[in-house]
Structure formats: C-alpha cells, structure tokens
C-alpha cells in the first residue's frame, strides 16, 4: 500500500486523519512537530531522501489566531515556509500534496458565499501566512489539492465548541461576537473526505488537482453557533444551569486579530468534482461535546 506522510499528526484533524488512513489500509508516517520540524529544510530533505513517500498530507498549522499577531515569525515559519519546503520536495520526487488552508483568505468585504475564483484578502497574520503557504505551493509546480476549510471542531484538541462548553459550566452568561458569519466544519468529516481523495489519487486516473473550498453546512454566525452548542450541552447533561449568550461585536470584544465578518464558502466545486454532498455540522456536535 502507498506510504502517506502525515504532518500535524497530533492536531485535531491529524488525529482523525491518521485513524481514517490506517482504516483504509494506507501505511502512514504520522509526524507531529516533535517527530518532524517542517520548517527545517535539512530535516525535510533527509526524510524524503530516506523514505519512499507516495503522498503528503499537510495538516500541520499554527492556529493561535490572536497569538500570531505577536509571534509573526513562528506563524510564518509553520504556515508558509513549511508548506513551501514540503512542496519543493513533492515536485522533486513527483509526489502529490494535500494541504489544509483556511476561509480567512476571504476577508474581502464580500457579503456572499465565496467561491474559489473570488479575490483573496486577509487582515490578520494567521490569514496572511496561510495565503503565503498556498502561493508557495502553487509556485512550486507540484501536484496539489488545497482545501480551504473553516471553523474546524472535533473530538481532539482545542476548538470553539469545547471552549463554549467549558465556559458554560462555570458561568451564567457569555459574550460572543455576532458579526462573524461562516461555516463550522467537522474535523472528522474533513479527514474522511481527505481519505476519499487519497484513494482517488491512487485508484483512479486522478486529474482533479487544484484549490477547493471545504466546509460543513449551514452557515451561521458565532453567537448563534454558541447558543446551539450550549443548548446541546445542556441536553447532554454537561451544563446544569441556564447560560445566557449575549451579543457583542469584534470591536467591542477587543480580540487582537481581525477575523473576516463574512467568510461563508460555496462548496459547489468540491461537490461536483467528487460527487459528494457537504455534511451538516450539527451531526458532529454530540461527539465533540462528549470528548475531553
């Protein structure tokens, strides 16, 4: 079976991906940061030289959006330089690359579902570095599938769903921004569909490389999303008192990084290319809320 190099293997998507790929029969070289520093050119070069890698899936990322405003060099190294080095090796050895990007590249003041042909723009370091990562992959000339995903949550690691659950356990009210509109996305759904693409690459005459939007449905604002999360947590017995979710704005909340006000994405291209229907994020709430 093909050997897949999986970076970011201890992240919330990476852990799901490792499980999916192993279940599908792939051999997986699962690397966390402690196993492989994707920002180290010598480490990357040596690994590719010594291992017969057939596919690279890059789920490694610097995702601390506010902290990135102060740690610009580190954020750039992981989100931009890392993909650049991986892509360089992929073109050298003719290896396909699947890379996870972000909806934050759509901070262009457009109030609609964004398509892959829309103008990209971003106003935070996280989005800027992820956009550089995309561009470096494109410039490399390697075979790539870039998936722009959004508001990822899942059973493993930290995410918005777990944060709302944990805060609700000890508070009677929460302030959550109402001027961020986007698509929550299940890490497990994303991993399963990446596994589907990996199989297509090896089992078909695959020629559908490119950039795709990938998210679950429907779109929702952060405030309404938080209300649904807390209501569901209460029904699961995880929150035992009333919690009011109050509306605020990004400006009032005072976060260091500026997020897109509307980063909704159309996944028509993904659905038509891979003959799938995007999944409903609510299906994955219970498993996330019940996880540590």
UniProtKB/TrEMBL annotation:
Q: Which UniProt keywords apply?
A: NADP, Oxidoreductase
Identify the enzyme class.
oxidoreductase
So what EC number does this one have?
1.1.1.133
Q: Name one GO molecular function term.
A: dTDP-4-dehydrorhamnose reductase activity
Q: Does the keyword Transferase apply?
A: no
Q: In which pathway does it act?
A: Carbohydrate biosynthesis; dTDP-L-rhamnose biosynthesis
User: What SUPFAM superfamilies does this protein's entry cite?
Assistant: NAD(P)-binding Rossmann-fold domains (SSF51735)
According to its UniProt record, what is one Pfam family this protein matches? RmlD_sub_bind
Q: Does the keyword NADP apply?
A: yes
Q: Which Gene3D superfamilies match?
A: NAD(P)-binding Rossmann-like Domain, UDP-galactose 4-epimerase, domain 1
* Function according to Swiss-Prot or TrEMBL: Catalyzes the reduction of dTDP-6-deoxy-L-lyxo-4-hexulose to yield dTDP-L-rhamnose.
Write out the similarity annotation. Belongs to the dTDP-4-dehydrorhamnose reductase family.
Instruction: State the protein's name.
Output: dTDP-4-dehydrorhamnose reductase
């Amino acid at each position: 079976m093909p050997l897949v190099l999986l970076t970011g293997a201890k992240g919330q998507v990476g852990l799901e991906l490792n499980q999916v790929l192993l279940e599908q029969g792939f051999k997986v070289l699962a690397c966390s940061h402690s196993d492989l520093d994707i920002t180290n050119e010598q480490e990357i070069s040596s690994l590719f030289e010594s291992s017969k890698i057939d596919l690279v899936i890059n789920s490694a990322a610097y995702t601390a959006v506010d902290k990135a405003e102060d740690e610009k060099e580190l954020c750039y190294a992981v989100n931009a330089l890392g993909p650049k080095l991986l892509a360089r090796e992929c073109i050298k050895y003719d290896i396909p690359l699947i890379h996870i990007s972000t909806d934050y590249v759509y901070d262009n003041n457009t109030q609609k579902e964004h398509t892959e042909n829309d103008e990209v723009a971003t106003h935070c370091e996280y989005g800027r570095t992820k956009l550089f990562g995309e561009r470096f992959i494109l410039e490399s000339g390697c075979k790539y599938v870039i998936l722009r995903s959004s508001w990822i949550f899942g059973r493993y690691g930290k995410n918005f769903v777990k944060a709302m659950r944990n805060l609700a356990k000890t508070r009677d009210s929460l302030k959550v921004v109402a001027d961020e509109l986007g698509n929550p996305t299940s890490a497990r759904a994303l991993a399963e569909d990446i596994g589907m693409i990996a199989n297509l690459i090896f089992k078909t005459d695959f020629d559908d490389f490119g950039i795709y939007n990938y998210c679950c449905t429907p779109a929702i604002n952060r405030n309404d999303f938080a209300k649904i999360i807390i209501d569901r947590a209460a029904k699961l017995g995880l929150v035992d008192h009333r919690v009011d979710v109050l509306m605020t704005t990004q400006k009032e909340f005072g976060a260091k990084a500026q997020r897109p006000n509307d980063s909704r994405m159309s996944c028509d291209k993904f659905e038509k290319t891979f003959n799938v229907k995007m999944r409903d994020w609510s299906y994955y709430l219970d498993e996330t809320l019940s996880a540590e």
